[in-house]
Amino acid sequence: MKNTFFEYNPLSNEIIDKLWENAVFVFDTNILLNLYRYSEETSDKFLETITGFKDRVWLPYQVGFEFNRNRLTVISDQRKLYDDFEKRINDIINEIDNKNRNPFFSVSVFEKLLSIKGDIKNEIDNKIKAYQESLITDSLLDKINAVFEGKVGNCFKPEELKKIYIDGEKRYIDKIPPGYCDSKKPENERYGDLIIWKQIISKSKDSKIDVIFVLDDRKEDWWLEHQGKTISPRPELIKEFRIETDKNCHFYKPFQFLEYSGKYLGETIKDEIIEEVKNYTPETIKNDNFILINLTLQGEISNLSVLVNDLKNAGYNVYTEFNSINDLHDVFIALPNIPDLERRLTSKYLSNLVNYGINLIRSIKK
Predict the structure, then answer these.
(1) Same domain, 180 and 295
(2) What predicted TM-score, i.e. pTM, was given to this entire model?
(3) Which of 53, 125, 210, 355 would bridge 23 by S-S if both were Cys, CB 3.0 to 4.6 A apart?
(4) Positions of E strands within the chain
(5) Residue 287's domain spans which residues?
(6) What is the mean pLDDT of each run of 10 residues along the chain (366 residues)?
């Protein structure tokens, strides 16, 4: 039975060891873009770890294309984060400086805050300057290019892409992974994940080699989730890969790649670095002044859309991932870390989900 339904069974330790000894390491677009989002120490260590596998690293052409297309936007977004943080610091200082209302602080404490503000401003200015310079002269880009020089796959021909688009349209209707979670993207972008997957399969077939795929894509069209936990890669993908290539494919999230790489390469990777990578949250839903509520809901997409629109119109910052396993859907709501706003969300919306034809399966505050 295990051999018949191999896609639902974990690989043996023996097979995993052989993968780490011989497989080609493939990376998705976010693995490269996140190198601009991590701290400098973490980014350097991650790239150093990738380099440790030398000739066994490889990029699908689509990954290289998406990385180069989005790199400048990511750099600009990082600069904006520092701009926004400096503004929040200034707002706090100005509020403390208001001598006509609580909270009241002594002059000595306020002077210390001003001194800290100056230190923070200097560091922020240096970071902003570095990001600005990297728009023109990017040393990190030079390092990435060096690692993957001669290790990028070929672009599919127009007729091959057309076939993937036609196949993708059918796959997305039937919720066959990967990529169907991007079905609402513009037509020239919605098939990006499927193209990457097809290029990985093509690489394995041509080179007759197993694959370790490292990806920082959290959507359910890559991962099998159960009760909020990631269990494994989607079984459909493992089966498709084996049928097409007669080889093994194993997935790792970025922090898992670092953990196992440290053991394989015999290097020590700081726990702080692994934790930073593990806990990284996309900027679309991350803000130190906000709490994040992850709702798992069950109901029709149309009803969910009405709820999301009502929340947005009420001023809530809403980020959605319309998952479809068992008709479950994830909604992330970011709101200022003020208890009254959370109570209002619960009393006005979460307690009245039945009016939207929606059931609340679980609510997790992060």
Answers:
(1) no
(2) 0.72
(3) 210
(4) 24-27, 57-58, 211-214, 223-226, 229-233, 249-252, 290-298, 317-321, 328-336, 359-365
(5) 283-365
(6) 86 94 97 94 96 94 95 85 75 66 67 73 79 82 96 96 95 93 82 97 97 91 80 94 97 95 89 90 52 77 80 70 60 66 78 85 74
